[in-house]
Design brief:
A: 2 domains, disordered C terminus, B: ABC transporter involved in vitamin B12 uptake, BtuC, 69% helix, globular, ABC_transp_permease (chain B), membrane (chain B), transmembrane transporter activity (chain B)
């Protein structure tokens, strides 16, 4: 009997949650994000389970008559992913390292989104920013002492250079949008390819380490490397603190300042902003530039904390940033947990690949699924309505068990 | 209907491409001599290889036109091409283990079915669940980009497949025996399909009732609805057509190569995005989109040939970014490509 009672209580809570999912606007975004995450994980589970029947392995986990042997246990996959990202200090370091980079790329996308602009170009801004940082710190390191004082000069300069170059590359689609009305989605996608092509060509033919066959610059010296905080990982807590401060700073910029307000309205309601005496065109350019600066800084941190050089095939952190930002509802503070989640997914996928043989590309599929589900809030509203919750339909039998 | 003529847009594009070629000539050693060698490259075999490279780009472009004309912007073309290419190779590989055997045409059809199913899901997400089309299209690309190498590793233990067999060339009797231009009539089936698809798409869009519905669905869905045509059905048809076209394009590329390559950006390598640029430059006209696709594929073929015969150190990377630079120039300086006015918007009929 008492079981039934607590069941009723839970059900009432569940009802309330669903009602909020359907009606409330404030909590809605968080609920949709969590629901999308849940649905993406469900689809991912099915994918892993089914592909286990195609893959070959020594000790299968399940046998289904007619289907054969299944190799992968989805629960084990997710558990391994969790342990692989938080199981040891080194793992935590790797997770936080990814989180730091994703904070910058996620904020880059979020800043543009806040202004109603969809910056898919973070990847290109990051790649060019990273190259500029690598080249400048390689030059600069020769002129500074090889100690902490040198580091205090080289690393800030590296960050600034990455930000400037990324900002410049972000400004281009901003100008095209503001003055030529070219859709920023198209231009930023195209500029990604152009940026990656130019960087590759420069490094391969001109500025790279021409003594090796791989397309890369020389390795940056110790004075340009962020000091590692946790042994076994290159993660530096300085970069993480910097990223968190930027997140809070951007939150305050939009929440508390007139500039932030103008930036938002300019992208969303250009004519209204102009009517209010705001130079909307300039603000569109500013938003895209700021977005590019953050993408460029992500590249600078990548060089000085992760790879210690520019190397062809920089991971798609810019695209991950889109998922992070969308999952966070484009809220700068929300970007923090979203970046942590994706950071642990990325780190955990390495462990899943190594110990279970499930391809790490699984995370890329999950990333796409999360974006897809969040893109359709109507899907969740319909689910809510189908079960009779929300104001869209009359709740006639809401109390029936 | 206007007679085809060189518009300002096209003139500018051709100028831009020529400028790109000249710049390219200056970037490499012996730029002067290059011009002469380029002229030597333009042979029938060069044209044949350019047309072969046009297949995935032009099919993606025409598919994109159908979807966007109905009002659904499909930026997932790249993802659909990846599904088509992977689907073709995986089907052929799987079929060879069955009693049916490695039937290349069946694999081709299965790939088109796979791509169309993904397009159907995209259509449901956009039309029923009113998803943001740009974000959903992006998701289609990112999912395909992750799924194809994921599944490749599951099946073949690495991101690329082994060789599974290619389409054999068909020659058109009579025409292929013609002097000098004969080789153009010896090609693989996807090339001939492209030759049929371009006029077919143009005819469908400009001369049929269905084409009028497509136009109206993207420009003025309200009056289409008033006329008693279901806007949703027209939009489904447009998106599904883009799935069929991308399936043909992706499968055509993979079955011409005989292998699926899943590393990096996969073997599709941005061809879906170039297709998108091609139809923007071609201003939503299948013939214009084909010509732009052919131009971009021609550049790719030119660079491949120059590397072979002249031993030039042409940077394939720089040639590769020319289409993207071209579309940026067109979008910025030639003016906005005229999108269908209701593209990207949901349509609710008042029932």
């Amino acid at each position: 009997m008492s079981d039934d009672d607590s069941g009723e209580g839970l059900r009432a809570q569940g009802l309330a949650a669903l009602d909020r999912l359907v009606d409330a606007t404030a909590a809605e975004r968080i609920a949709i994000s969590l629901a999308s995450l849940g649905f993406a994980i469900i689809v991912g589970t099915v994918l892993v389970f089914v592909s286990g029947f195609v893959a070959e392995c020594r000790d299968p986990f399940i046998y289904l008559p007619g289907l054969g042997f299944g190799c992968y246990n989805p629960l084990e996959v997710y558990w391994t992913m969790f342990i692989g990202s938080f199981g040891s200090m080194t793992d935590i370091g790797q997770t936080l390292l990814q989180t730091t980079l994703l904070l910058f790329t996620g904020l880059s996308v979020a800043v543009a989104f806040r202004a109603g602009l969809f910056n898919i170009g973070t990847q290109g801004q990051m790649v060019l920013g990273a190259l500029a940082t690598a080249l400048v710190v390689l030059e600069l390191a020769a002129y500074v002492p090889d100690n902490a004082a040198g580091m205090l000069i080289v690393i800030p300069v590296g960050v600034v250079v990455g930000g400037i170059v990324g900002g410049f590359w972000g400004m281009i689609p901003g100008l095209m949008k503001a003055y030529a009305n070219a859709h920023e989605v198209i231009t930023t996608i195209m500029l990604n390819f152009v940026a990656i092509g130019i960087a590759f060509w420069l490094v391969q033919v001109h500025v790279g380490d021409l003594t090796t066959d791989s397309v890369q610059t020389e390795s940056v010296p110790a004075v340009a490397r962020l000091p590692a905080t946790i042994s076994g990982s290159r993660f530096s807590v300085i970069a993480l603190i910097g990223a968190l401060l930027v997140a809070v700073g951007i939150y305050l910029l939009y929440k508390r300042t007139v500039i932030g307000y103008d930036l938002r309205t300019s992208g969303i309601q250009e004519s209204a902003a102009e009517y209010g005496g705001v130079n909307a065109k300039r603000n569109i350019v500013t938003s895209m530039t700021l977005s590019g600066v953050l993408g460029g800084i992500a590249g600078a941190i990548y060089v000085m904390m992760v790879q210690y050089r520019w190397q062809a095939g920089i991971p798609p952190l810019g695209f991950d940033g889109i998922a992070v930002s969308i999952l966070a509802g484009n809220n700068p503070i929300g970007v923090i947990p979203a970046a942590l989640l994706f950071g642990s997914l990325k780190t955990g996928s390495v462990a899943v690949d190594l110990s279970l043989g499930v391809p790490g590309e699984l995370v890329e599929v999950l990333r796409g699924l999360i974006i897809l589900f969040i893109a359709m809030p109507e899907f969740f509203r319909m689910i809510g309505k189908r079960f009779g919750y929300g104001n869209g339909s009359v709740v006639t039998d809401g109390g029936e068990a | 209907m206007k007679a085809p003529s060189v518009t300002r847009r096209q003139g500018l594009l051709i100028g831009g491409i020529l400028f790109g070629l000249i710049t390219l000539g200056l970037l490499i050693d012996g730029g002067g001599q290059l011009i002469g060698d380029v002229a030597g490259v333009f042979s029938v075999s060069y044209l044949a290889s350019a047309i072969r490279l046009t297949v995935p780009i032009a099919f993606a472009a025409m598919g994109g036109i159908f979807a966007e004309k109905t009002g659904v912007i499909n930026i997932g073309l790249e993802g659909l091409l990846i599904i088509g290419a992977f689907g073709a190779v995986a089907s052929l590989y799987a079929l060879s283990a069955t009693p049916i055997g490695a039937n290349i045409w069946l694999a081709f059809v299965l790939a088109i079915v796979a791509s169309t199913i993904v397009a159907l899901l995209f259509a449901i997400v956009c039309i029923e669940f009113k998803a943001d089309q740009i974000i959903a299209g992006l998701a289609v690309w990112l999912i395909a980009l992750g799924f194809a190498p994921f599944a490749s590793i599951i099946i073949w233990r690495r991101t690329s497949s082994p060789s599974v067999g290619t389409f054999s060339t068909i020659s058109i009797p009579g025409l292929s025996a013609l002097p000098s231009i004969g080789p153009l009539f010896e090609a693989t089936p996807p090339v001939f399909l492209l030759a049929l698809a371009v006029p077919f798409s143009w005819y469908l869009l400009n001369r049929t009732t269905f084409g009028m519905w497509i136009e109206a669905s993207g420009e003025d869905p309200k009056s289409l609805d008033t006329a008693g045509v279901d806007v949703r059905k027209v939009r489904y048809a447009g998106v599904l057509l883009s799935g069929v076209y991308c399936g043909i394009g992706g499968a055509g590329l993979a079955l011409n190569t005989g292998q699926f390559v899943g590393s990096g950006d996969t073997m599709i390598d941005g061809r879906g995005w170039i297709g998108l640029t091609a139809y923007l430059i071609g201003n939503y006209n299948p013939v214009g989109a084909f010509l732009a696709s052919f131009l971009f594929a021609g550049l790719e073929a030119l660079q491949l040939q120059l590397q072979q015969i002249a031993g030039y150190d042409v940077s394939s990377t720089l040639v590769g970014i020319i289409p993207y630079v071209a579309v940026l120039i067109v979008l910025t300086f030639v003016g906005r490509t005229r999108m269908p006015s209701a593209a990207g918007e949901h349509y609710d009929s008042d029932e």
